[in-house]
Write a structure and sequence with these properties.
Helix content is 36%, strand content 25%. By secondary structure, it is of the alpha/beta class. It folds into 2 domains: 175 residues, P-loop containing nucleotide triphosphate hydrolases (Rossmann fold, 3-Layer(aba) Sandwich), CATH 3.40.50; 67 residues, no CATH class.
Length: 251
């Protein structure tokens, strides 16, 4: 596996008014990796991904992609450069069809019609149910199908880096297993993934490395094996006895 550095975040601070949601976060993502970010509700995980997508401005710190800074880059240009984001809560366009949602995901390369058609077929190869429902309104899909559509839409821009925010949230266990299998397949196809996920056990089983956010700071980092064997993380995330002890609402 190549170890080329794709994404570097250094000393990142994000503020919502007087509230500092991220307080000096640093992490990295290399080519071919799946890296997971764990943390309780409010720890700053979604804020981190929104900052990488340039949906939120950094008050301090730097984000570099392929060695180039992302400061003052428009969100659509972030997508064009190769970073795509499947947000928490799916946020599909409910009054548009599956086909139309996917087409919007390819907006930054809409003039390259053969490539867009090829990307759509790759998405249908991953999510055959979307092909069967391509003319169905997205708002009428099940929760699991909407999650597939959100990921598929993000893949339509042919990203090198995919940001996934809570892809298993609210899904039945059998669908969670399916989503994680598909994430692994996406990675095998050459996409590096930064995965925010509260299902810590499955996320660490899938990822190469991980970070734990605690009220806007990185409180632990290491290989998935190291994090799985960490007693504190076991108690907080794998046993459920102290769930929420590593974070508080507000980020």
């Amino acid at each position: 596996m190549s170890t080329a550095r794709l994404l570097t975040i250094e000393n990142l601070h994000i503020r919502y008014g007087a509230l500092e949601a991220l307080k000096g976060v640093s992490l990295s993502l290399d080519q071919g990796e799946i890296v997971t970010v764990l943390g309780a509700n409010g720890a700053g995980k979604s804020t981190l991904l929104r900052a990488v997508s340039c949906l939120l401005p950094a008050s301090e710190g730097e984000i570099h992609y392929l060695g180039l800074p992302l400061k003052r880059v428009a969100p659509y240009d972030v997508v064009q450069r190769g970073i795509s984001h499947a947000p928490e809560g799916r946020k599909v366009f409910s009054t548009l069809t599956v086909h139309e949602n996917l087409t919007l995901g390819a907006f930054t390369r809409r003039r390259k019609k053969p490539e867009v058609a090829e990307a759509r077929e790759r998405v249908f190869g991953l999510f055959s149910v979307l092909k069967d429902r391509r003319q169905q309104l997205a708002g009428t899909l099940s929760g699991g199908e909407q999650q597939m559509l959100a990921i598929g839409r993000a893949l339509m821009s042919a990203p090198r880096v995919l940001l996934l925010d809570e892809p298993s949230l609210g899904l039945a266990p059998i669908l969670v297993d399916l989503i994680f299998e598909i994430i692994e397949e996406i990675n095998r196809q050459g996409v590096s993934i930064l995965l925010v996920e509260q299902n810590a056990r499955q996320a660490l089983a899938l990822a190469r490395r991980g970070y734990v956010l605690e009220t806007g700071r990185v409180s632990a980092a290491g290989s998935s094996t190291e994090l799985l064997s960490d007693t504190r993380i076991q108690e907080a995330y794998l046993g459920g006895s102290a769930l929420g002890s590593l974070g508080s609402p507000g980020a």
